[in-house]
Amino acid sequence: MNWGSFYAVISGVNRHSTGIGRVWLSVIFIFRILVLVVAAESVWGDEKSGFTCNTQQPGCNSVCYDQFFPISHIRLWALQLILVSTPALLVAMHVAHRRHIDKKILKRAGRSSPKELENIKNQKFQITGALWWTYMISIIFRIIFEVAFLYIFYLIYPDFKMVRLVKCDSFPCPNTVDCFVSRPTEKTIFTVFMLAVSAVCVLLNLAEVVYLIGRACKRSFRSPEDESKLPWISQRLSTYKQNEINQLIADHSLKSKFTVTKKSPAERGERCSAF
Amino acid sequence: MPLTSSMSWPALYTQLVGANRHATSLGKIWLSVLFIFRVMVLVVAAESVWGDEQSDFTCNTLQPGCENVCYDQFFPVSHIRLWCLQLVFVSTPTLLVAMYVAYRNHRDKRKLLQVAGFLSAKGQDEELETLKKRRLPIAGALWWTYACSLVFRLLFEAGFMYALYVVYDGFQMPRLVQCDQWPCPNLVDCFISRPTEKTIFTVFMATTSSICMVLNVAELVYLVIKLIDAILFWIILFLSFKLCIPYKLIKTLSF
Question: What is the ipTM of this complex?
């Protein structure tokens, strides 16, 4: 599982998150993915080879393992982490869409120098308008996925504790045989740890929802003629129109400056001090 | 899975190195000790020494399940997992400092953009660059954040060392354990694989852990001395103003 490239993709979204969003991302990477990769995978590594049943009957081991472990904890957690991290890509797509529109407007305004295009790439967008809704939806999906996986976990493994012994009587086991699970205590410790961090992540997401709603309310209670209430695209068009006007004024005033010939150093110094 | 585990520690390293710009020199030494003597050794030891800990755990019985149960009784958590968790937890307080620095930079950038409107675009860019590249002095709220992160580091280190000591009754790995859990038929002898090598690595990791704790304590002491220094400076300055005595005279009188 190539978590390295996954990390590269997801951390790109970090620039457009709120502060709580960045904390959530760090918790996901350090306390869940890193712990999963360096510790949990080796604990569950020999879960099938270490699963021993008290019988010589061939096939009984496999059948009993399959009955009690339909899907391994590790795979469930990996799926959970992938699904929980992907709504952030919704936000990345929206930001990319806005950048694309920005570029188009710039080209129409006739100012497509490489420097301006660079500026667009590095620009950080405010979480307002449609981006706010996209962000909110992505957080809600995150919460839904986390809770869904916690519930699935509870359904498949009702007790969060891993038992030492399971009793199995599926065909071809001759009668009820005792089967012993490998490393049950270590597995319990890691299960409890991962579930606790999962709960912390859900709390962080809820806090982020509350924070975003609070910010939106604060913005709407500010002066109603506030420019930031307009849709993003009209703001952009008006800024560029204003920029064009400013550019024209600047060009005009520069032209008048360049008609003047050399000035004496004393006079130049005076001009500088006024500025 | 050695390949994937060696891919994750470098990611943690890049995060920490970025955060370490605002650390003291002791903090930088601590980071190097952490990564060279602990993370690298852990990665090396994990597969080779503890790799066959369960498969080579042999009990003197043919009873199926007895080995599993006895292994579980004597090794509730493997050393390797405890050390991994310890390293992950010990590295995290540094990110507290990084988060605070990022917040400060963000706040100062906002102030700068408000104030420096008269500068040309190039001048603004230069100011932003210096803001990003500057190194904040460890004073005020940054001092408290840094000190808190040191205290947490110490707590985590000590906590995990204590847990290891309590779970394994010391740092030595015995060659033989005796087990009588069901389904073992009676008291059986179980033999641990590579006990001496495991003892050596355990003692080594415990030693480096103690060195890291000493470094953290030294850094904390250094920070406290800096704080006392700053307080004394303000007291002297205050006295020099109140008593109308020149600052230099008070300084020479007090030292």
Answer: 0.72
